[in-house]
Amino acid sequence: MFPLNRPINDWHNKRVWIVGASSGIGAALAQEALRAGAMVALSARRIEALEDIANADANALAIQLDVLNDSAWTLAYQGIRERFGGVDLVIFCAADYRPERSWEVTPSGANRTLSVNVGSVYSGLANVLPEMILRGSGGIALVASVAGYIGLPKASVYGPTKAALINLAEILYSDLHPKGVDVYLINPGFVRTQLTARNDFHMPALQTAEGAARSIFKGISSGRFEIHFPWRFTMLLKLMRMLPYRLRFALIGQLVKT
After folding, report:
1. Residue 17 Rama label (left phi>0; alpha psi -120 to 50; beta)
2. Where is the signal peptide (predicted)?
3. Nearest-angstrom CA–CA distance, 33 and 60
């Protein structure tokens, strides 16, 4: 079958902006892209972590960014355009996560997770899409999660934000593909990061950030729309999503017990 996006056979001089690149999947993705010859802008609040990568490679640029600050998005994008002349691919990796049951959620905590995981994406899109649409090329990649497939325990706010990103990626593809802009939906399983270190439960098929980055990079290179991994775990959740609610809730109940 033909891929839904245009494959990227040569990453040399591709201008990639990774938002949320100070650690975890974002940092590992930056290393993958740099090794492939791309020009990479790394953004996060912690500029020191970004500079460790940027100082080691002439093709890397560290741009400090608070994703909750709309004006900061504009300044960051201007800085990248001045250095690289534009952006070919934006990967939205920034995320907030707290493992919590529904009765443990606080309004302030929920508002922050919603703002970081979903609201900030719209701020980024408002800055980069006009130029991509004008020239008829570019790419948008949203890092969602398999937590957006079904209602999983302890993902009371995180899960709904990732479900929203899955929905948004589908809308973006319908809107942007006819205009020449590629869209990628990335749904990782459990990845060993600072965020998942907060979990106090068993995480099946746990993988490293480096392994996740390789899967994402391979998927984008081949032009896939949805990039989900590891398949032995993600396909199980996809199957659960197809079950009647009675069976699905029974299986989720077993997850809660374990």
Report:
1. beta
2. none
3. 10
Beta-bridged to residue 227, according to DSSP, are: 186
3-state secondary structure of 42: strand
pLDDT score for 257: 61
Mean pLDDT value of segment 239-250: 93
Judge whether residue 145 has pLDDT over 60: yes
Whole-number Å distance between alpha carbons of 1 and 66: 40
Map residue 226 onto helix, strand or coil. Answer: strand
Q: What is the pLDDT of residue 254?
A: 77
User: Which residue segments constitute the domains of the chain, with CATH numbers given?
Assistant: 15-257 (3.40.50.720)
CA distances from 67 to 43, 131, 181 (A): 9, 20, 23
Give the model confidence (pLDDT) of 148-167 as tens digits.
999 988 899 999 999 999 99
Backbone CA torsion sign across 234, 240, 242, 245: negative
Could you tell me which of 32, 36, 60 has the C-alpha nearest to residue 214? 32
Instruction: Please provide the DSSP assignment of 74-114 as one string.
Output: HHHHHHHHHHHSS-SEEEE-------B-GGG--HHHHHHHH
- List pLDDT tens digits, range 224-236: 999 999 998 899 8
Angle at 213 between CA 6 and CA 182, to 5 degrees: 20
Confidence of residue 66 (pLDDT cuts 50, 70, 90): very high
DSSP string, 121-152: HHHHHHHHHHHHHHHT--EEEEE--GGGTS--
Rounded distance between C-alpha atoms, residue 48 and residue 128, angstroms: 25
pTM assigned to the model: 0.93
